[in-house]
Specification:
Layout: H1 2-12, H2 20-44, H3 46-77, H4 81-97, H5 99-105, H6 107-114, H7 122-132, H8 139-155, H9 163-179, H10 193-219, H11 221-237, H12 248-268
Helix pairs in contact: 1-2, 3-4, 3-8, 3-10, 4-7, 4-10, 5-6, 5-9, 7-8, 9-10, 9-12, 10-11, 11-12
């Protein structure tokens, strides 16, 4: 390509023998460069475009968490313990579907919103009082949760959603489902860990299908089928009434196999192999 550019430059160079034919060749070269550049932009980053298509889903999920937190604040002001618990659960659903994104892209806010197991703030500090101690005096913690979620929601349109970061987050959340949530999970006190895992798998599935599935299907259909199969297996394993009914060994195995399949997909997608270094908060 460099030689091509230099040839074009030689055609365009002024000189005493410059004639109409040479000008025509220079124009053709310049048009070719422009077309090549346009084609490069169109083909170079299909995953970048797919990552951008994922943005509305992040906005929706964090928006749901924020709406639930604001409802929680109102229920607390009304001294409505049962209503506050329902609002807390509603806020968690949006958050858990967004965890593909949160830990990797906004780690500071993630720690303030969803610190666990040593929860001094955020969802789990509130959970301990609402569900564990049957207390409604969580005004300051809830105000902080609303503020942090509102801050995050306001940043979402400007954060650079990279395919690499989203694949990393997808892999780490898949690992977390099988390794740290299947034995009782984060939300032991409220008893919503089963819903946490279901929402996590929904979030993994949404990110994968929105960003990576089409590209992987075109480069390695067999590997794409393997990812689809592991996602479906995880969904099926979580179709139970209660957390103790989950087949934990199978869930862990399916989780680990999904992690490996997604890690193997990285090379097909032109990305670095994700690691699990940030899996544990």
């Amino acid at each position: 390509m460099t030689d091509f550019y230099l040839s074009c430059a030689s055609f365009a160079s002024p000189g005493p023998t410059l004639h109409a034919r040479r000008r025509s060749l220079a124009i053709i070269c310049l048009l070719s460069i422009m077309l090549a550049a346009g084609a490069g932009r169109a083909n170079a980053a299909p995953l970048d475009e797919a990552a951008e298509r994922y943005r509305p889903h992040v906005v929706e999920g964090i928006g749901q968490a924020l709406a639930g937190a604001r409802d929680l604040r109102g229920r607390i002001a009304a001294r409505d313990l049962a209503g506050a618990r329902k609002a807390w659960i509603a806020a968690r659903a949006g958050w858990e579907r967004s965890e593909v994104f949160t830990a990797g892209f906004v780690p500071e806010l993630d720690a303030q919103i969803d610190a666990w197991p040593n929860a001094q703030s955020g969802f789990h500090a509130i959970e301990a009082k609402l569900f564990g101690a049957n207390q409604i005096d969580v005004e300051s913690e809830t105000d902080a949760l609303v503020d942090h979620l509102s801050s995050l929601h306001g940043k979402l349109h400007d954060i650079d959603l990279t395919p690499q970061g989203l694949l990393d987050g997808t892999v780490r959340l898949a690992y977390e489902v099988g390794e740290s949530k299947s034995d009782g999970g984060e939300s032991r006190i409220s008893g919503t860990s089963l819903d946490d895992m279901r929402n996590n798998v929904d979030g993994i599935d949404l990110a994968y299908r929105t960003i990576f599935a089409g590209e992987l299907k075109s480069t390695d259909p067999r590997l794409a089928d393997a990812v689809d199969g592991k996602l479906e297996e995880l969904r099926t394993l979580l179709v139970v009434r209660n957390l103790p009914d989950v087949d934990i060994p199978r869930l862990r195995r399916a989780s680990e196999e999904l992690v490996v399949a997604l890690q193997n997909a990285s090379a097909k997608l032109g990305l670095r192999r994700p690691t699990l270094e940030a899996a544990a908060r």
